[in-house]
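Case study 2.
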Amino acid sequence: MHKTSRSKSNMNDLIDISFDFRTDTPVGKDPDTYSPTLRRYHKALWSKPLPSGKLFDLDDSYKSKYLLHQSELGKFVLTSDSCIPTFTRWKRMEHIVGQFTEKENDAFRAIGYTIGGMMVWPGVAKPGFRTINVERGFNSMIADRLDLTMECIRRYYLGVDSPMTAVLTANSDYFSIFKDFRRFVDHFLLQDLTTNDYKGIKFLMPFDSFSTPSVPRDLIAYRAYKKATIEFINARNSRIASLGVHA
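Prediction:
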């Protein structure tokens, strides 16, 4: 268990793609809410111009709001999401993940808690809907997977139904500021999860229009998922590092 409460990063340091956000989070708390380094990194990375030319400026000065953007484009309160499930804490996956040592499982979780495994979403639920983050976790056809979420977002921009159509449509004000799927992907540096032409997703498990399992069913499938997941996080981390962003 990680029980330190420290930060390797100071203001104006380059983003450290190896930083495990659990290490500066109080014991028993969620890094998505309580890691100051993660909050700073999100602000530094995603505060940048939108396709309209308007700055997507994120304010982290409010205690009750993780990150806030407010302009003529609208008001958006964003929250952090550790968006890559390792399934190492899932009860129904114990028969699979239990075949790895705890050290191996924690190493997988540690990679997932680097910036390449993190995302932000609108954090205020629209009336009658869950937040996108909660929907990702509770919808069994998504199982918290980012690749499946991205396929839903890709379809949303095309006007094609998916298991998340309702909640994405409820947040249309947010998605409209990115104009289209390609520019949404580019803003959040998710190119390593899409094909070169942005017309498809590089799925982390075999995919057939949401009819295939969203969770690995056996050790072979889990090993393949784990390998593909780590490759994606490492690629996104490298992409983030190449920008030389200070936070």
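Strands lie at 67-71, 74-82, 118-122.
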